[in-house]
Amino acid sequence: MGWNRLGRYRGTGEEAMPGTSIMETNLFAILNFVLGNGKRNYRVGGYHGLRTDMGFEVGTFRRHILVVEYDGAYWHHDREQTDVEKICRTLDYGDHDIVRIREQPLRRLRAADVSVPKRSDALTCARLALLHVAHRPAPLELDTETLVRVQQFLSIGNVPLNDTQIICGFCQELNYVLYQEHPFPPVNDSPRRRVFHDCTFTRLTAEISWAHRNHESRWHPDDRSWEQAEADSAARRGFTNWLDQQRTQQQANERPDEPANDRPDDSSTIRLF
Predict the structure, then answer these.
(1) CB neighbour burial string for 19-52, b if at least 16 within 10 angstroms, e if fewer
(2) How big is the chain by its Cα radius of gyration, in Å?
(3) pTM for this predicted structure
(4) Would you tell me how many other CB atoms lie within 10 Å of the CB of residue 207?
(5) Where are the alpha helices (DSSP H) in 160-267?
(6) Residues 6 or more apart from 211 whose CB is under 8 A from it?
(7) How far is Cα 250 from Cα 261, in angstroms, rounded to an integer?
(8) Better pLDDT: 157 or 76
(9) Which residues are CB-neighbours of 215 under 8 A, at least 6 positions away?
(10) How far is 116 from 135, CA to CA, in rounded Å?
């Protein structure tokens, strides 16, 4: 166990591959605890030249492999084209899905990617990744048992994820449901369209997965139209606008203007000097 010349952590055995970092080690430990059936330094299709950070057998009957890559801003700031090529090569193998956890200011490369704040710890990255993976569209969705484990893991945290940490509008909805006693606000400012108290995490993930499938089909290495389509879809659901209004109102309540008639009168103040 030690450090390589690049200053990155190296473990023993299979984990001693060059480029293995403490972040990737901790991230795998958390994700494997929730998803299970994980493997470090997963080789897609058994091909030695296509090694990824980690892979998990997920889905009904463990029918596909979820590949997870962590892209630190320092190491990947000039590797976008290489990362895109790796996505394409991974997707060329059947029954493989890939999610890249991208540290800001790196931009997401496809709708499946997760954007995490700069210098986030492994737990925060894992929570954001699980929240995003929970609404993967068919046929890449999680099975019900795994989805329940994801929900339980995300909901037991003493400190909820801050909405400002979550870039994906769909993930913001799921995060809201996890921590609210009354799960959902009005949608599209319509009092008639509401999700009532029986709206569960699993039910909402199924609904969002259906809406999210179109962004997956739009993806192309040389086309970022999926980004605008995703933003438009989230805007149509109305949750992001509602959340922005709540933030504005909360900030106004935290810094209320002091009424003039409530200010102390200097003439009635007892002066000691």
Answers:
(1) ebbebbbbbbebbbebbeebebbbebeeeeebeb
(2) 22
(3) 0.79
(4) 16
(5) 169-179, 201-218, 225-237, 239-254
(6) 170, 233, 237
(7) 24
(8) 76
(9) 111, 226, 229, 230, 233
(10) 17
20: CB partners within 8 A, 6+ apart: 8, 9, 10, 11, 40, 41
Q: pLDDT tens digits for 123-175? A: 999 999 999 999 999 889 999 999 999 999 998 876 778 888 899 888 988 88
Please report the DSSP string for 113-179 in residue order: -EEE-TT--HHHHHHHHHHHHTTPPTTSPPPHHHHHHHHHHHHT-SSPPPGGG---HHHHHHHHHHH
Strand order in 64-71's β-sheet? 38-40, 54-58, 64-71, 96-103, 114-116
| CB of 71 closer than 8 Å to CB of 108 | no
As given in the structure block, the two tokens for residue 122 are 């492994």
CB atoms within 10 A of CB 103: 22
Helix, strand, coil in percent for the chain, rounding step 5: 50, 15, 40
Place of tokens 């599209």: 188
Mean pLDDT of 96-111: 95
Neighbour-count burial for 233-243, b at 16+ CB within 10 Å, e otherwise: bbeebbbbebb
Contact 21, 8 (CB under 8 A): yes
Q: Chain-wide mean pLDDT for the chain?
A: 80
For residue 211, give the nearest of 108, 135, 106 by alpha carbon: 135
Contacts with 114 (C-beta within 8 Å, 6 or more apart), sequence order:
99, 100, 101, 102, 108, 125, 128, 129, 132, 168
Q: How far is CA 191 from CA 4, 13, 86, 180, 244, in A?
A: 59, 59, 46, 19, 18
Query: What is d(CA 248, CA 245) in angstroms, rounded to the nearest whole number?
Result: 5
